[in-house]
Records
---
Amino acid sequence: MNILKILKKTVIDSQFYVSLMGTLFAVFFMKEQNTFRFPTFALIFITYFSGYLYTKYQYTKHFFKIVVINAVAGIVCALLIIHNHNEIRLLKWFIIVVLGLLYNSFFLDVYIRKIPLLKVFYVGLVWALVNCWLTLPEFSIPIFLISFFFITALVLPFDIRDMNSDTVKTFPMLIGVQNTKYIAYALVFISSMISVFYLELAYALAFFMSSIITYIFIYFSENKRDDSYYSFGVETCSALPFLFLLIMEYF
């Protein structure tokens, strides 16, 4: 039990896990587009990790440490881009970082997270931009749509988890848990169908299998479930396309 608590605190609660899952989701599309490079992997992970740390700890006593960490992370990311990419990618990265700040920042009177129902779509938008724009020479509409619908669907179970504590209106509050699940099912289905038509066969198959597992996690999402169900189980769904692809390639 102590080991599980330590793992939860050091891996999941530290925002390391969600950052890694988001990065592996991006790696899946980079491999499909044959654009994978380790500096890009590092860039995406550092961006996610510093962003989630900022969002979680900006209102705590650790605020100053988080600002320092984010400043260092920003410099490292900029250097990675300058030495491995070009000024266009630096601009793309900067825009995505600004979008992340608009999601939830202490210096804004009104930020995205305060706007009813918008949060789920905004998270999907930012993750989709990382996959279809930051890592590619040109904007890919199919990858944007696949990512946007899939990630938006994965955010909805978290709204189910938080429906008794959220201070803004969310889908479970307005339409109920079951109807929220129906929306999530539909979004995953649309995402999976687009992948069938636009991704290479092996990648489409990996994404389809991931969608099946995601359906299961959505189905069993309930407000009273333990937090680890969401912070570990549901979060892992975003890495499943890459993990299934890895299994297909090596086994």
Note: The chain has one domain: 15-250.
---
Amino acid sequence: MAKKIDPKQTKRAMAFELWMDAPNPMVTFFKILDVTPLIKINKKRKLKFNMLLDYCIGKAASGVKEFYILPVGHELVQYDSIAVNTIVKNKEGEVSSCDILFTEDLAKFNQDYLRYTMQVADSCENRDLTDSMVIGTSAIIDTEIDGAVGMNSGIYNNPFIIWGRYKKKLFRYYLTISFQFHHTQMDGAHAGKFLANLQNEINGLQVIYGDKTYGTIHDGKCNEQQII
């Protein structure tokens, strides 16, 4: 559910005054993540790497209350749920957008991820969840990147995460991500907390879920962008 709120009645009142009309209110942080636990689960359980990372993103964001308030136009909107967006290569060879509602149940999140990315790939129609605060993601799987800065459109103010291929160093795997956010939504400390949460969720995922099985993973015509 989404509802408009009075910025003056929130802790983001000053940020709203300072940044809503700024020429460039978007801030980008870069972070190198150790994604070794995700690689191990991917290989052992055949769960998609991008799905696992999207799950960790949703879990990390759910622990930072600033993610639930987003500047939309010139208003603040409060949400009671978070979704993670993924880019899907559709049957026409183009890309479509697919929002997945975050749930702490990894089996359910995986089921929804597979179902809706396949649905979007087949229909070539975007799946938008307008009642949730959506975290955008984009996987640039064709190359290793050292960073990327998102577009400041003035329309899409949602937080956005970009990554490329992971890199292997000795026995560990590392992934560089960029995290873009609107300064009205959060400050650097909140973004830093989210990124720390993200690494912690990745580290803890194998401990919690590494020995569980989540059923058959569809490998049919769903062409979700997956890091290999």
Note: The first helix runs from residue 13 to 19.
